[in-house]
Design brief:
Length: 277
């Protein structure tokens, strides 16, 4: 029998209102300001709204060939990072979830290490290696260095997903004559799809917004949307309306991905994966 305190019911509207206000301040307000800035022809202090509104800034940005190349590079690199992260994370996560081993906790901390080191530090340290290998300032080099940042979370999520798979199910499949490839293709991967999708979406978003490592190892040869945004925020040539438009372009696929993620992610899987971070 559930024991509910009589004081809890009146508090629910207050909690909901507080959450909606927090959401409006942290999410909606910045987006609205970006939209207003992108349409502003001139906005001078102390006016609360721009003096003029127009689509000239949008025409200028959308007519810039550099934005098109940066968008293509961002999408190409994000897809490459997601595929490479998935390929590396699957066997590692399976071993972490299903293989008894000594020093497992130390290995988990080692895997987690790249996610707690600042991206600029990773970029500088790996940049020399990429130069030696001759792949610095290339798309492949940027994909490699970004994968260092997305791999820990993907491994955590997939480990949490694999840990939920009952061993008895795999033993039953083996006893019925299923080989390793059949078990992987028909049993493990279908059951791991939610974790795979969640990790893939988060890897895509993490790569699409990544700046530090890309700037160190790829710019100015490889331009992505975040590095392009930096050129508009240069204090010597600050163009805030154009920067607002690039920010909105950056935000659009992220919103789409997170709406999709909200429909497919399992709360227990996310809690399990995030709880280990």
């Amino acid at each position: 029998m559930t024991d509910r305190s009589p004081t809890m019911e009146p508090r629910r509207p207050l909690v909901a209102t507080t959450l909606f206000l927090a959401l409006a301040v942290t999410v909606a307000l910045p987006v609205i300001l970006l939209v207003v800035w992108s349409l502003s022809g001139r906005w001078s202090y102390p006016n609360l709204l721009p003096d003029t509104l127009s689509l000239d800034n949008w025409r200028q940005v959308l007519g810039d060939d550099g934005i098109g190349r940066a968008t293509f590079n961002s999408l190409l690199i994000a897809v490459g990072v997601t595929l490479l992260t998935t390929a590396l994370a699957l066997p590692t996560a399976w071993a972490m979830a299903k293989t008894p081993m000594r020093g497992k906790r130390a290995l988990e901390l080692f895997i987690l290490a790249p996610s707690i080191i600042p991206g600029i530090v990773v970029g500088v340290s790996v940049g020399q290696v990429l130069l030696t290998l001759g792949i610095a300032y290339t798309t492949f080099g940027v994909i490699l260095v970004q994968t260092i940042g997305t791999l820990p979370l993907m491994i955590r999520l997939m480990t949490a997903s694999f840990e939920t798979l009952p061993d008895e199910l795999i033993h039953a499949a083996r006893s019925l004559g299923a080989g390793p490839l059949a078990i992987l293709h028909r049993l493990i991967l279908p059951l791991a799809v939610p974790g795979l999708m969640a990790g893939g979406l988060l890897s895509f978003v993490g790569s699409f917004e990544e700046f530090d490592k890309t700037f160190v190892t790829g710019a100015p040869v490889i331009q992505t949307l975040p590095t392009k945004l930096y050129t508009y925020l240069d204090p010597y040539s600050l163009q805030f309306p154009l920067a607002a438009i690039v920010s909105l372009i950056l935000l659009l696929p992220v919103l789409v991905v997170f709406i999709a993620a909200g429909r497919i992610m399992r709360d227990d899987l996310m809690a399990g994966g995030m709880g280990k971070l």
